[in-house]
Amino acid sequence: MKNNKIVIYIGILVVGVLLGWLLFGGSPNEETDHNHDPVAESNQMWTCSMHPQIMQPEPGDCPICGMDLIPAEAGADGLTADQFKLTANAMALANIQTTVVGNGSVESGTIKLSGKIAENEEANAVQVSYFSGRIERLDISFTGEKVRKGQLLANIYSPELYAAQQELITASSLKESQPALYKAVRNKLKLWKLSENQINQIETSGKVIENFPVYATVSGTVTEKLVEQGDYIKQGQPLLKIANLNTVWANFDVYENQIDLLKKGQEVKITTNAYPNKVFKGTVDFIDPVLNTNTRTVDLRVVLNNKEAIFKPGMFVTAEIEGNKSNLNEVITIPSSAVLWTGERSVVYLKTNPDEPVFELKEVVLGRRLGGHYEVIEGLYEGNEIVINGTFTVDAAAQLQGKKSMMNKQGGKTMTGHEGHLGMDNNTSKNKSEHANINERLKVSEKFQEQLKEVYNDYINLKDALVEEDSKGISEYASSLLSNLSKVDMKLLKDEAHNHWMLLVGDIKSSTTSIAGSQDIKTQRNHFKHLSSHLIKAVQLFGVNETVYVEFCPMADNNNGAYWLSKEKQIRNPYFGEAMLSCGEVEQTIK
To answer: Would you say the pTM of this structure is higher than 0.70?
Structure first.
């Protein structure tokens, strides 16, 4: 009996242990494994809620403010240190647009070029005088007058020709006895371009023509008068320049990185603002074998039929040429409006979350420019979503939130606590301001906007003077800008708006003062580049109650590119003036 009880107790104990193991045995190990997952530990980063640029692989204190670090994924917005978010209002106000990057040729490899109409030099002629004398009458009244071959151009009194006519009359009476002399005199007059009829008329009439007529040897349009009535001229001296405008040249500048995409004989589609609804066709006739070292371009020429006098020399035209498709296959391309340049860096903004307006700066390496697009050599992959409109506004938001930006490579705020700065460049004012995550236009009074608009209008006048290369006018408008800048009442601004204006006004004043104090156009343009950078951000933040266009030229600043503001979409380049007036494009529209 006693042995039976022992067996029963042992059986109950075994069953209890077995049930306990089944119910609870695996939990401690699983929990331990979960809490010590080496993959989770290796991927976890720690950051500071006040200084998101701080990223460490383990917890601890912030090296800037001493606050406890928190898991990077546990932040209030769930974003990494380099990411930031825009509001729906900011997205709509700045008209921010994105696109997904893909492979393949862009616009079927279309290359857009800007150029001018010029006279066809092969059809030009210079009307010269074949004998010396005095112009008694000039029958051409003005430049632009059309002439026909054989038309009377002028009457010239020539003592030499007068004497030669008398020799002919005398020699004609001796032609039987001295035929060689007679022939020599006639040939002499022929060398002076007298026709057989004119020589025969002199010989038959026996009278000397005092004022000898000069007739046009070609048909065309007078493009330049080189003499006036009453002038004394020498043998061989040019009288008129005559151009045959039945055909004209369209000359275009081709950037260095586009040369291998073009070849002689390619079809060209040409448009002009004078006839906006018409497309004219031609072919590439000539590509200059020598590179212009000043503009880093080569000349491309298209010969156009102009019998209807549609094209006028000096007229601006635009060409579209289908590039060599074999060179464009399997490349990643992005719109030029997506790219921001700063020094040697080219950057774009990635939209990292397809469902939310979350952005992050990305450096890229660019290749050739293909029309309105760039090849991307490094930095982007097919399927990436990038900002293509409103890029400046996104960059301003990044700066205001202390993230990596165009001019702030490392990102982060350089002051402790809640203090921060815009971080535009190394010369940015160090005034302190309370930092706020502002990613849309600041609300300011209309009176302040009116005062800022006076500064903006002076800037536009300054820009136009740079286009005209009017160094004196540039200094005058710069002085006017400084005067209106001093009249801006900072008492009209409060809190964040006041602090951000304080950050900008010093840089605007510094750049403008440098422009006003120089008479060298190259120096003025260099400082204008910095002035534009600061004023663009001012207009983005505060507005001037009108539409403003941010425009960009990739050739400016030694091919690093530079921006400027304009009241109109038409490109009038302040960095090159007449040399490359239409070089550039609209990068952003600020409503």
So the answer is: no
